[in-house]
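Protein of interest.
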Amino acid sequence: MTATRAIEQITGRIRERSRPTRDIYLSRLDDAAGKGPHRTVLSCGNLAHGFAACAPADKAALAGDVTPNLGIITSYNDMLSAHQPFETFPALIKEAAREAGGVAQVAGGVPAMCDGVTQGQPGMELSLFSRDVIAMATAVGLSHNMFDAAVFLGVCDKIVPGLLIGALTFGHIPAVFIPAGPMTSGLPNDEKARIRQLYAEGKVGRDELLEAESKSYHGPGTCTFYGTANSNQMLMEIMGLHLPGASFVNPGTPLRDALTREAAKRALSITALGNDFRPVGRVIDERSIVNGVVGLHATGGSTNHTIHLIAMAAAAGIKLTWQDISDLSDHVPLLARVYPNGLADVNHFDAAGGLGFLIRELLDAGLLHEDAETIWGSGLRPYAVEAKLGTDGSVERRPAPEKSGDDKVLTTYRAPFQPTGGLVVLSGNLGHAIIKTSAVKPERRVVEAPAIVFDSQEQLNAAFKAGELDRDFVAVVRFQGPKANGMPELHRLTTVLGILQDRGRKVALVTDGRMSGASGKVPAAIHVTPEAIAGGAIGRIHDGDIVRVDGERGILEVLVNEAELERRAAPDPDLSANQHGLGRELFAGFRHLASRADEGAAAFG
């Protein structure tokens, strides 16, 4: 079967599976869109409240039915480097809107927490559910029914998925996503990782570690490794919600500002008041979801999106599964090597040709739906470009370069780094899990070793410091799923297990929790479903049981007789310490309602 035929078949089965829910979604979208400019349904008192703080000219414009009003949903805060640049964006957007004959208002703000700040801390247990809070906050901002289109200012891990879920809930209006861009390159990521390992081994102190971290994360913009944040930007562009070439332009540059202004004007040009209506619920369909998955595989993107993409698709009535993601991986080659899949950062990737080069290669290979809807129009081929600043300060686009600027970072579909994308579904008597093999050397993708069971990452780190782990083993870290403690990332385990692997030990991780979007060189079966707290077999593994993690054949199993495994009593953990402090008590309802990881781990829907 050709790659093109395989992509079409997988898309077709998603479309058929989704038809009942997608039809309901589109019917509701059409009903809402058919009511015309939304301010017409507001009473005079409603409308007066809605524009009370506007300038007189904007009030006059909004009093009628023909001037488009653009809502701004922003994740700005100035503690987080990726979101700090958004401080100045509303003013740029409002100015551009007036130039285009429209009005723009900040409709609302959404929270933006940073997994980099909360890694290994109690606050990380709020992280996954912050996505759902962001979706709901987006809905609150748009609920005033004042807007003909919206722009969304977001970058990082849960923020963009939450914004898109919220946007799709208002799928009858157009949505344009506006990124802030990555920070400039600092300390190389592999050097940062080396210092982390030395610190974990006690060979350097905290001062040296902090210096290295500060040189790596050093200014405004997204972290430069290819984790969830930068995977988000790739997704928004390849799914047609960014402007072509917008994703990886550094903040604080004239080109970044020009792209922001252009995005505002584009959003106003695709409302129902004009002749090119592009509601986001129509732009996002089965084709664009498949394009997003293909882009994830081709770039070696974040494992977190095996959860987020399912939740985002569901918001549009589309039923995506892990099996779809895994099957697509079989047909999509890896074309990018960006840390942790390589030594380069996203700035090097962009300089080598970036998303424009990658999209063209995937289109030419027949691996993307070229006819997918986008905010730009005319399918996906116009995204095979790079954006430059014109002499008049506007954005100019030119075709992506024919050759990669660095074929160790970005390659062609004819000479891929590996023939498959590297996100694999594991199955067996422990249920289902995800493994990211693209950053794991082939000789390390299969591990069969005795289990050592932990109920937290702190327990594992304590055992390492006590010298108890210098052997071959599979670390089983349970009670880390969405219902147990909110499914925090277990990023601290990467360094410890990496040290043991470098010592020549065969090690792997099996967990119902998450790893970082920058999951690295240690084979890790993550998102194990069903989770331990829900009766999953991962909770019945004992120390010494032989566990097999096979990333090549897609196997995850404990080598215990089935009857014996069933006889074992389910553990009764004390999770009281995870129920309060740093706001965790407010999320008890989310933990109770959370769906399985392979269903999007959402607390609604």
